Amino acid sequence: MPFIPRQVKPPARQAINCKVPTETAMLLKRYAEFLDSTQEYVVHEILQLAFRRDKEFQEWLATTGVATPPEGTDSTVVPPALRSRS
Predict the structure, then answer these.
(1) Is 28 exposed, middle or buried (0-12, 13-18, 19+ CB in 10 A)?
(2) Looking at residue 83, what is its pLDDT?
(3) What are the residue ranges spanned by the domains of the chain?
Protein backbone atom coordinates (compact mmCIF):
# COMPACT_ATOMS: atom_id res chain seq x y z
CA MET A 1 0.00 0.00 0.00
CA PRO A 2 1.45 3.41 -0.95
CA PHE A 3 2.33 5.89 1.78
CA ILE A 4 0.14 8.52 0.11
CA PRO A 5 -2.83 7.94 -2.21
CA ARG A 6 -2.25 8.03 -5.94
CA GLN A 7 -3.20 11.24 -7.69
CA VAL A 8 -6.56 11.05 -9.41
CA LYS A 9 -6.11 11.61 -13.13
CA PRO A 10 -8.54 14.08 -14.63
CA PRO A 11 -10.73 12.76 -17.44
CA ALA A 12 -9.70 13.45 -21.02
CA ARG A 13 -11.04 16.76 -22.24
CA GLN A 14 -12.13 17.98 -25.63
CA ALA A 15 -12.45 21.61 -26.62
CA ILE A 16 -15.78 22.77 -27.98
CA ASN A 17 -16.67 26.13 -29.45
CA CYS A 18 -20.07 27.73 -29.36
CA LYS A 19 -21.55 31.18 -29.50
CA VAL A 20 -24.08 32.35 -26.95
CA PRO A 21 -25.85 35.66 -26.52
CA THR A 22 -23.71 38.31 -24.82
CA GLU A 23 -25.98 38.34 -21.77
CA THR A 24 -25.56 34.57 -21.34
CA ALA A 25 -21.77 34.88 -21.60
CA MET A 26 -21.78 37.63 -19.00
CA LEU A 27 -23.95 35.58 -16.65
CA LEU A 28 -21.68 32.56 -17.12
CA LYS A 29 -18.68 34.66 -16.19
CA ARG A 30 -20.46 36.09 -13.13
CA TYR A 31 -21.71 32.66 -12.01
CA ALA A 32 -18.19 31.26 -12.26
CA GLU A 33 -16.97 34.18 -10.16
CA PHE A 34 -19.77 33.54 -7.66
CA LEU A 35 -18.70 29.88 -7.35
CA ASP A 36 -15.00 30.79 -7.39
CA SER A 37 -14.66 28.33 -10.26
CA THR A 38 -13.80 28.34 -13.92
CA GLN A 39 -16.32 28.89 -16.68
CA GLU A 40 -15.33 25.47 -18.03
CA TYR A 41 -16.37 23.90 -14.72
CA VAL A 42 -19.72 25.72 -14.71
CA VAL A 43 -20.54 24.69 -18.29
CA HIS A 44 -19.60 21.08 -17.56
CA GLU A 45 -21.67 20.86 -14.39
CA ILE A 46 -24.72 22.55 -15.91
CA LEU A 47 -24.64 20.22 -18.92
CA GLN A 48 -24.26 17.14 -16.71
CA LEU A 49 -27.21 18.33 -14.61
CA ALA A 50 -29.34 18.82 -17.73
CA PHE A 51 -28.36 15.40 -19.12
CA ARG A 52 -29.25 13.65 -15.84
CA ARG A 53 -32.56 15.42 -15.32
CA ASP A 54 -33.89 15.23 -18.88
CA LYS A 55 -35.97 12.05 -18.73
CA GLU A 56 -36.86 12.21 -22.42
CA PHE A 57 -33.15 12.42 -23.31
CA GLN A 58 -32.42 9.47 -21.02
CA GLU A 59 -35.14 7.46 -22.76
CA TRP A 60 -33.77 8.44 -26.15
CA LEU A 61 -30.29 7.33 -25.09
CA ALA A 62 -31.72 3.99 -24.04
CA THR A 63 -33.33 3.51 -27.45
CA THR A 64 -30.08 4.25 -29.32
CA GLY A 65 -28.47 1.13 -27.86
CA VAL A 66 -25.52 2.98 -26.36
CA ALA A 67 -24.10 0.62 -23.72
CA THR A 68 -21.12 2.71 -22.66
CA PRO A 69 -20.16 6.36 -23.13
CA PRO A 70 -17.39 7.26 -25.58
CA GLU A 71 -13.96 7.02 -24.01
CA GLY A 72 -13.05 10.03 -21.89
CA THR A 73 -16.63 11.11 -21.26
CA ASP A 74 -18.59 11.28 -18.05
CA SER A 75 -20.63 8.11 -17.51
CA THR A 76 -23.42 10.03 -15.77
CA VAL A 77 -25.07 10.67 -19.14
CA VAL A 78 -25.67 6.97 -19.67
CA PRO A 79 -28.95 5.72 -18.21
CA PRO A 80 -28.49 3.50 -15.13
CA ALA A 81 -30.05 0.52 -16.93
CA LEU A 82 -27.41 0.71 -19.62
CA ARG A 83 -24.51 1.16 -17.21
CA SER A 84 -25.09 -2.30 -15.79
CA ARG A 85 -24.70 -3.89 -19.25
CA SER A 86 -21.05 -2.90 -19.65
Answers:
(1) middle
(2) 44
(3) 22-68+75-83
